[in-house]
Design a protein that fits this description.
Layout lengths: L18 H26 L8 H6 L3 H25 L1 H14 L4 H27 L1 H11 L8 H21 L3 H19 L5
Helix pairs in contact: 1-5, 3-4, 3-7, 3-8, 5-6, 5-8, 6-7, 7-8
Length: 200
């Protein structure tokens, strides 16, 4: 997800969606996605948070894995900030995404980031990647972020690249700690940047 440029100063409240249904439906959707991932791996007898049984036996190296997640998130946020402040298409994309999301508080951004980060990583990395491989899981992640409007296509491309990075973190560490950390941090920061300029 891309970050937002400076506010244009125009009033957009009449164009923003009702936040409560947005948060409610997002919560339901992400809960179902996470449940599907956990149930699928549980039914198959697979460790849901690990690439394979060997990785599960090795466990999580918390300092390394959380550090990698935060470092990768910082890189993605920096790139998205450059794109939205220095390219015309990036600025237009950020404005459109911000209007689609509407105004969100810091707590709402954090909640959506935590829900989406956990659920999407549990499904696309924890459930799909061990079965389909890194490339297929990354492509499906990108397609899941596809929108029919041409102006939003760069968002799909950005999601495809971000999914590839998250999948690489999963392959490198063998567990979901780094991908979830990166995903949550990216979404929390970029959601806040995208929506802070939307008038309440």
């Amino acid at each position: 997800m891309l970050s937002s440029p400076q506010s244009t100063g125009s009033s957009r409240t009449d164009q923003t969606p009702d936040r409560i249904p947005l948060l409610r439906w997002a919560g339901i959707a992400y809960t179902l996605l996470a449940a599907a991932a956990l149930a699928w791996n549980g039914w198959a007898g697979r460790p849901w948070a690990y690439l394979d049984p060997a990785s599960a036996a090795a466990g999580v190296r918390w300092g390394r894995d959380l550090g990698l997640g935060v470092a990768c998130a910082a890189g993605v946020i920096a790139v998205s900030q450059v794109l939205t402040t220095r390219t015309r298409w990036g600025a237009a994309l950020a404005r459109e995404l911000g209007l689609a999301l509407g105004p969100l508080t810091l707590v709402e951004c954090a909640a959506l980031a935590a829900l989406s980060g956990f659920a999407e990583e549990a499904f696309f990395r924890g459930a799909l990647q061990p079965r389909l491989g890194w490339l297929a899981a990354s492509v499906l992640f990108g397609l899941a972020h596809w929108a029919p409007r041409r102006t939003l296509w760069p968002w799909t491309g950005f999601a495809l690249l971000a999914g590839g990075m998250l999948g690489a973190l999963f392959e490198a560490t063998g567990n979901l700690a780094a991908p979830i950390t990166a995903h949550v941090v990216i979404n929390a920061v970029n959601l806040r940047l995208l929506t802070r300029s939307v008038d309440r």
